[in-house]
Design a protein that fits this description.
The protein is α/β, with parallel strands linked by helices and 193 residues long. Helix content is 32%, strand content 27%.
């Protein structure tokens, strides 16, 4: 697992031993950032939230590509150690903070602090069946910038609704057993016909 582009390009990331955690593959990560580039251009100055961060590869890739800051959330202390190591290896530790907590408890806390993000990555365990609730909670607490994008990685057999509250799935890509769905806010003019 390596950083694909940007200031930390080519730096190797530490992963988890065994098969308990499924990190996003380099191929899928490259495809996600290619899709994001076509939507928003460079990551320069963007703020990032990485929920179920695992190794931190998604947020670290965004930081390497110029994102201003990132908040990484995972309930695993082991993930925290790996993320810290990966941030140090890439020299991006001053642009990121790690919260060791359950995602469901962090979302309201971030909302109450008025935090808003340009990019939100959500990559729950494939067995997690509360992804709709997590997306609604992110929306309810206003964590996604008006013109921001939320990228949700799931098993390819999982099909998220096209619309979740005022968020619309504008693209879905499948990569073998993995699917990535892209959500953004529905603009008022999109509803006015």
């Amino acid at each position: 697992m390596r950083i694909i582009s940007g200031s930390a390009k080519g730096r190797k990331l530490v992963g988890f031993s065994g098969g308990s955690i499924r990190p996003t593959s380099d191929r899928v990560r490259e495809a996600v950032f290619s899709s994001l580039y076509s939507q928003i251009g460079h990551c320069n100055g963007k703020t990032v939230l990485d929920l179920f961060a695992g190794t931190g590869a998604m947020a670290i890739e965004a930081l390497s590509r110029g994102a201003e800051s990132a908040v990484l959330v995972d309930q695993s202390r082991d993930a925290g150690k790996i993320i810290e190591q990966n941030l140090t290896t890439t020299g991006l530790q001053n642009k990121a903070s790690f919260l060791c907590a359950k995602v469901n408890s962090v979302i309201p806390q971030l909302g109450q602090k008025g935090r808003v993000f340009d990019l939100i990555f959500i990559d729950p365990p494939y067995a997690n069946d509360t992804i709709d609730e997590i997306i609604m909670s992110v929306n309810h607490f206003g964590l996604l910038q008006t013109d921001g994008i939320m990228c949700i990685e799931t098993a390819s057999k999982v099909h998220l609704p096209e619309d979740i509250e005022n968020l619309h799935c504008f693209d879905r890509r499948q990569y073998g057993s993995t699917a990535v769905s892209y959500f953004k806010h529905v603009r008022k003019e999109d509803n006015e016909i």
